[in-house]
Design brief:
Length: about 300
C-alpha cells in the first residue's frame, strides 16, 4: 500500500513540475524580444574592438532596468573578468538578436549536458530519475539565464566536469576544469582553497595554474589597464546591482537595508568559518567539493 501511495505521490509531483515547466517555457518565449545581459556582453566586445574601455556603460545595448516597486533603477554593463572581453569581441560584429537566439540554444544544450553527466554518475530508478530531471528543468536560475542571455550554464558545465573528475580521483584534470571556472567566476577560488586545505594539492595547484594562465591572456592583448578598468567598473556599478531584486547574495540582502558592508563582513566570516572547518575536520573528497561550492556561492 505504501509503495502505491509513494508511486502516486511521485506522479502528482511530476505532473506539477511539468506544469511549472510549461509556465516557465511560456514566460521565456514571451520575453525573447530583448537583449538583456547579452546586449551588455556585445557592447563590451564592441568597445574593445574600437580600442575603448570594454567596461564602459555608454551604449544603448547595455541592460538598463527599473524596479518601480522598490523605487530603484540601474544599469548592468559587463562585469565579468577581462578574459570575457576577448570572447565577446568575437561576437561583437554579429547581429545581436540572432546571436542571442543562438546563445540561448547553446545555453539549453550546456545545461542538458551538465544534467546528463550528473544523471549518468548518479543513476536512479526511472520514476525518481524523471522527478529529478523535472526538478532540474524548473530551477528559476536556468530560466532567467536563458531569458537574460547569461553565461552561467557554461560555468555550471565546468563545475560539473570538475566535480566528476575529482570524484573519479583525477585531481589534475579536475583542477583544470576548476581553474577555467575560477577564471570566469573568481569567487570559486574558495573551492580551490578548500581542496588545498584538505590536502588535495594536485587539484589546488592545477586549478591555480590554469586560472592564472587564462587570466594572463588579456594582458597580452590589452595590458594591465584592462584589469584596472574592470575593478573600477565593479566598484562603480556593484552598489546599484546589489539592490536588484534578483540578487540573492548576503551583500544583496544587506544592501536592501542600506548596510551592504555588513553583508561583506558576514560573507567573509562565513567563508573563513568554512575554511577553518575544512582545515580542522579534513572532510572527504565529495564533502570538500560540496563545501567548496557552497562557500564560493
Amino acid at each position: 500500500m505504501k509503495d502505491i501511495q509513494r508511486r502516486y505521490g511521485s506522479v502528482v509531483i511530476l505532473v506539477l513540475l511539468l506544469a511549472s515547466y510549461i509556465v516557465n517555457t511560456l514566460f521565456v518565449l514571451l520575453t525573447l524580444d530583448n537583449l538583456y545581459d547579452f546586449g551588455s556582453f556585445i557592447a563590451s566586445g564592441q568597445f574593445a574592438n574600437e580600442g575603448q574601455d570594454p567596461y564602459s556603460a555608454d551604449s544603448p545595448l547595455i541592460l538598463a532596468v527599473r524596479f518601480p516597486e522598490i523605487h530603484h533603477s540601474g544599469i548592468a554593463p559587463n562585469l565579468n573578468p577581462p578574459i570575457s572581453v576577448l570572447v565577446f569581441q568575437t561576437i561583437a560584429g554579429l547581429h545581436p538578436m540572432k546571436a542571442i537566439m543562438v546563445w540561448r540554444v547553446i545555453t539549453v544544450t550546456l545545461f542538458i549536458l551538465s544534467v546528463a553527466l550528473l544523471a549518468r554518475q548518479y543513476p536512479r530508478e526511472r520514476t525518481t530519475a524523471l522527478l529529478r530531471l523535472a526538478w532540474a528543468l524548473n530551477l528559476a536560475g536556468l530560466w532567467h539565464t536563458i531569458q537574460l542571455g547569461q553565461i552561467y550554464t557554461f560555468a555550471l558545465l565546468m563545475a560539473v566536469a570538475a566535480w566528476l573528475a575529482l570524484k573519479k580521483s583525477k585531481p589534475i584534470l579536475g583542477g583544470i576544469f576548476l581553474g577555467i571556472l575560477i577564471a570566469i567566476k573568481p569567487n570559486f577560488v574558495f573551492w580551490a582553497l578548500l581542496l588545498g586545505i584538505v590536502g588535495n594539492w594536485a587539484a589546488f595547484l592545477s586549478a591555480g595554474i590554469t586560472a592564472a594562465s587564462i587570466s594572463a591572456i588579456p594582458l597580452i592583448f590589452r595590458g594591465f589597464n584592462i584589469y584596472n578598468e574592470w575593478l573600477q567598473a565593479s566598484r562603480s556599478y556593484t552598489p546599484d546591482l546589489l539592490v536588484f531584486p534578483g540578487n540573492n547574495s548576503l551583500q544583496g540582502l544587506m544592501a536592501h537595508f542600506g548596510v551592504s558592508q555588513i553583508g561583506v563582513i558576514l560573507s567573509i566570516v562565513l567563508a573563513i568559518g568554512i575554511l577553518v572547518f575544512g582545515f580542522r575536520q579534513k572532510p572527504g573528497s565529495e564533502a570538500a567539493n560540496s563545501l567548496g561550492i557552497v562557500t564560493s556561492l
